[in-house]
Amino acid sequence: MATKQWKLKDQIFDDFERQLLFSKNIKEEDARDFFNPDYENSLHDPFKILDMDKAVERILSAIDKNEKVILFGDYDADGICGTVVFHDFFKKIGFSNFDVYIPDRHKEEYGLSIKAIDEFAKRGVNLIITIDCGITDFKEVEKAGEKGIDTIITDHHLEVRQLPKAVAIVDPKRNKDIYPYKMLCGAAVAFKTVEAILQKRNFNVTKGWSKWLLDLVCIATVADMVPLLDENRTLVYYGLQVLRKTQRPGFLSLFKKLQLKKENISEDDIAFLIAPRINVASRMEHANVSFNLLITENSEEADWIADRLDQKNIERKEMANRIAEEIDMEIKNSPHCPELLFFGNSEWPAGILGVVACRLVEKYSLPVFLWAGGADKGVVKGSARSDGIINLVELIKEADKLAPSGESLFLDYGGHVFSAGFNMKESNLEILKKGLLAAYEKTKKEETENILWIDKEAGLDDVDWEFLKTVERFSPFGMDNPKPIFLFKNLEIFKVKMFGNGGIHLGLDFKKLNGFISAIGFFMPSTKFDVKKGDRIDLVASVERSNFKGYDELRLRIVDLMVR
Questions:
Q1: Alpha carbon 280 to chain centroid distance?
Q2: Which residues sit opposite 410 in a β-bridge?
Q3: At residue 273, what are phi and psi to the nearest 5 degrees?
Q4: DSSP state, 513?
Q5: DSSP code of residue 270
Q6: CA-based, 20 to 30 A from 105: which of 26, 270, 460, 560?
Q7: β-bridge pairing 368-373 and 379-385
């Protein structure tokens, strides 16, 4: 049985490319710009972001006076990459009076902390530049000001309450910001800030040098799952070109470890292989490990770090599987069908809650809130994920308003529509759970379609390298620009195989006129669809190139299937 209702989009054109343009609502007169984004004309003026002029002026002043600067980055792939953007820029212009500080996910709060501010004051810091965080840190920024430290916030998260009294807040999502595109990731905001500085003063840097930073912006944009439209499409389009030419020892070592051909790196490789290994450092030990991978100029050090990250990723998967199974069992044994999922354990590692939450959202299509022990006794850290049926930040706000005491339940919180994080006292967990359920019941939900829209019907013999070449013209794919999907009818399964940890992934082989073609489905065990050799099925799948272990293969990626 299929998991969704299938509907074929209107078939207007016989021409394959024109039909896909129609399917994606791209006008033919806009096709040329879509397929070949113009770097100069597709990117908006960074000075259109509110406070950018103030940020640039203060950073230039710090450089001129050789003031002590702290680059304070978030600990995920977005924050790490954005911090490297600033690091590389400062190195390029010969400014060396700066340090990098990325907090320990397990021992410190999200974003700035009073403890960190006190430490910076002791070190004679004059300016803090946050990357991918800071929009909610009003107490910490106020404390920094009292210590004589200025703060510039570069962020992309939503406002939640009052704004910090920073020198500048560079965040396109600010309520009063009129920047033409709101959906940049944190590293992209950092890149726009560097671009603005170089517009104001070029420091004898070769025009266009900043494009070499797009490998970092590309990875962060894909990892943070922001829409791949408008400016983001351009940044990733050119970022992939830079990544395919990269000379960073860290990337070269990681590609070698993952058996990826540099010249064929795709957004899928970033999403499923590269970004998870950059993220795993903070989840399993400290984000500095990944930061050092990206800045090292030593190949031997890069090889050592790449090996370490790969091993930690294996450990992370094992932990995530155990926690997900534990939650699945609790849900199975629950007498009631939950409206949202709220689970936690002080012994769980906080760093992998987001990974588990994403998996649960995919499986149950419900908002998920998970918590684990925090840095201090009696404090917990939480991660929340949603499929878009509800705005998580707004839900948290509403739950907080319902607190009986009238005081905030949280020490800190923030995030996006789909993703949020929070810190709070463990004693408030039950109040939060009740508040979330009450807020969820009264909050308007967005309709989530149970319809799978199919771009075109095709036959297995249609799928060749030329077919894929047409599909790839629409890349890079991601949020709001999904891969085209195709309906293949009445296929006979030649072979069924299960792979991955405990057989959690499904592989199917089919015969075609000139040989065989494989289809794979991640987290789709054969038992979910109950398929076997000889079954005839209708299959919905995308078409992709696999470079696994350096071998080029044309294959299908299963989206859904139905046994005839």
A1: 13
A2: 424
A3: -125, -50
A4: T
A5: I
A6: 270
A7: antiparallel
Neighbours of 533 (CB within 10 A): 11
Query: pLDDT at residue 188 above 90?
Result: yes
Angle between helices 275-284 and 288-295 (to 10 degrees): 140
Distances (CA, A) of 186 to 114, 133, 517: 22, 8, 40
Rounded Cα distance between 132 and 79, Å, is 5
Of the candidates 345, 372, 343, the one whose C-alpha atom is nearest the C-alpha of residue 359 is: 343
Question: Which tokens in the block code for residue 350?
Answer: 């906080």
Say which amino acid occupies 561. L
188 — phi, psi (to 5°)?
Answer: -65, -40
**pTM for this predicted structure:** 0.87
Q: Which residues pair with 101 in a beta bridge?
A: 72
DSSP summary character for residue 417: S
- Report the relative pairing of strands 495-499 and 505-512 from DSSP bridges: antiparallel
Residues whose CB is less than 8 angstroms from the CB of residue 492 and which lie 6 or more positions away in sequence, other chains included: 510, 511, 534, 535, 536
Closest CA to 168 of 123, 127, 211: 127
Q: Which domains does the chain have, with CATH numbers?
A: 5-24+455-563 (2.40.50.140), 43-206 (3.90.1640.30), 334-442 (3.10.310.30)
- Give CB contacts under 8 A, 24+ apart, made by 260-263: 260/547, 260/550, 261/547, 261/550
Each residue's pLDDT tens digit, 368-421: 999 998 767 888 999 999 887 788 888 898 888 888 877 888 888 877 778 888
- Which of these, 247, 182, 248, 191, lies nearest to 214 by C-alpha position? 191
Q: Does the pLDDT value for residue 357 go beyond 70? A: yes
Instruction: For residues 330 and 327, give the distance between their C-alpha atoms in angstroms, rounded to a whole number.
Output: 5
- Joined together, the tokens standing for residue 556 give 């299908």
pLDDT digits (tens, 9 = 90+) for 239-287: 999 999 999 999 999 999 999 989 989 999 999 899 999 999 998 999 9
Tokens of 462: 């249609």
